[in-house]
What does this fold into?
Amino acid sequence: MVHSETFVAPASIEHRPIEAEHLLNNLKWRYAVKKFDPARAIEPHTWAALEHAAVHAPSGFGLQPWKFIVVSDRALRQELRGASWNQPQITDASHLVVFARKTGVGRAEVDAYIDQIAAVRGVERASLAEFRDSMLGFAGRAGFDVQGWAGRQVYIALGVFLTSAAMLGIDTCPMEGFDASRYDKILGLTEQGLAAQVVATAGYRSADDPFAAMKKVRFRHGDVVVRR
It folds into this structure.
């Protein structure tokens, strides 16, 4: 995901909780948009905030085994639409993001993360040796399915992205209906040690999207939430 300079984070962090009703109303308002308004674009400042929201998603150990590819080139998006069952969201939405997983997580990735921790927190790298060994032991254990693990982490980032968009009044559609191998080839992901995991389109719903007026269907709270 290309870093945007249009969003400036505050110098100090202040938690400002929203009302519970506001949270639930926004999540009920959200749905997987089938028809976007191609004439409406997300403002740069708002989009930059969404990028930063995804970057701040949690992950195992904080390792962030992902990259987010924001595809803006129109010709490229048209090509990706052909690899997405010709679904119009790919080209009609304001923004398209490919959530890609890292296909390998080992010493290089762990050391890069350790270096980042030391730099950001102003601590000696040696003080992080135990944490480094823990991560290396996790990633290097016999039978470890690194791609399966990385894929699950990517979905955490997707969830943060979708929820953040709803809070900002931005419509989205998470999409698994695409040929991942073709995405990898079109975007040159394999050579970068990446693989397309899931796609999200973002923008504004079309006024004539019939799905917008449909009631959200979920199982009853008591059928899903179990208390022990």
